[in-house]
Design brief:
Helix content is 33%, strand content 27%. The protein is α/β, with parallel strands linked by helices.
């Protein structure tokens, strides 16, 4: 057990999917895992362990933002020896050709600042996905009808941003979408020699103003979860 994860030793799988929303973790575990059992509910941040195609998998909520994600990822790595961490979450579309419900597989995750920024000081570290996971996720996505994009995303440390000038530059430089966690996840995975990936569903769009209702954000992202699971065990 850790400060934030109440699972007993051996109850967390080597592969963990990390949605931000704990209720999305519950939905994904009940929908995709066999014999899923609740292994963590500290602070309401639900975690479940079961199997997918015979492979042990944990789906653990990470909360909102890089500081929260950092807590759970650090404890999963240091105390439970997790080897593969895949973020499954929603994001905002930034390019005109990226639509609502499209899937984005994040090759890179740019950010202004993260919990790891103090370590690097003046150095601009470039957080990237694990190549084996990225390649497997793209292959899994190609077998589906879901429109999928592969490229760079932006991990913001604020939800209510007031930087239209920054948005303009990100669009100009091809950033596909914006979310709040992946850059720190990729950085921690690099630091500890683990595999990490973010597979995201576009839930709203910064240019068009379109948005999915909250219920759809929790329960209709099946392709994203299946792509993540296939990537983890390919």
């Amino acid at each position: 057990m850790t400060v934030h994860i109440g699972a007993a030793p051996g109850k967390i799988a080597p592969t963990v999917l990390m949605p931000g929303d704990p209720y999305r973790a519950k939905w994904a575990a009940e929908t995709f895992l066999k014999d899923a059992k609740l292994v963590n509910e500290v602070r309401g941040m639900l975690g479940f362990t079961g199997t997918w195609n015979g492979n042990p998998v944990t789906i653990q909520g990470s909360g909102m933002g890089m500081p929260s994600l950092s807590i759970y990822a650090n404890e999963l790595i240091s105390e439970y020896d997790v080897q593969t961490l895949i973020r499954i979450g929603s994001c905002g579309g930034m390019q005109a050709h990226v639509g609502i419900r499209d899937v984005i597989i994040a090759m890179t995750a740019s950010t202004i600042t993260s919990p790891s920024s103090a370590i690097f000081r003046e150095f601009n570290f470039a957080p990237t996905a694990d190549w084996s996971l990225l390649r497997a996720a793209v292959a899994a996505a190609e077998t589906r009808d879901t429109k999928t994009h592969v490229g760079g995303i932006y991990s913001s440390d604020v939800f209510y941003a007031e930087r239209p000038d920054l948005d303009e530059q990100m669009v100009r430089h091809g950033i596909l979408g914006v979310e709040m966690e992946a850059a720190e996840l990729y950085t921690l995975a690099a630091r500890h020699g683990r595999r990490a990936l973010a597979v995201l569903t576009v839930s709203d769009h910064l240019q068009t103003g379109e948005a999915l209702p909250s219920e759809d954000r929790e329960k209709t992202f099946g392709d994203m979860v299946e792509i993540a699971l296939e990537a983890a065990f390919t």
